[in-house]
Design a protein that fits this description.
The protein is an alpha/beta fold. The protein has one domain. It is built from five helices and five strands; from the N terminus they run βαααββααββ. The chain has a five-stranded mixed sheet with strand order 1-5-4-3-2. A hairpin with a 5-residue loop joins strand 4 and strand 5.
Length: 145
Amino acid sequence: MGASGWHYFTEHNNDLSAALTTLKAQVFSAGTYFDAHRAYPSLRGGAAYSPPKTVRELMARCAEDGTHSILDMSTIAATEDYGVVRPLTDDERLALFGTTTPTRDMMLSAGWEQLRTRRSRGWCTPFYTDAGAPDGLFFWGSSGD
């Protein structure tokens, strides 16, 4: 199948771990993820599709395929690794967006996509109003197989 890229905007939160937890709950609740049982009826043994009741159940269903979403990320950390969302540094924001306080519109530019080529990883950064006040968080990455 190959990895899928994903990105999300969230409300601003200084606690990135809490923001990740909230975002994952929203994605799970909305059903906006890959579910092997939904995609491959043969895995259900002829039974009708039933959405997973928990993220843990979903992850067990998907195994190595992953969910192709933020649900594949497990934590926030300063070092890049599989299943980790890493916040951008000021220097990285400056290199990608030409400023340390990018706006939401700048988040939609192609700069961040060059990082998304690294599979099973995620990144996040705050975005700002035109006046430079924190306005939200932008999460993106690539996962699944």
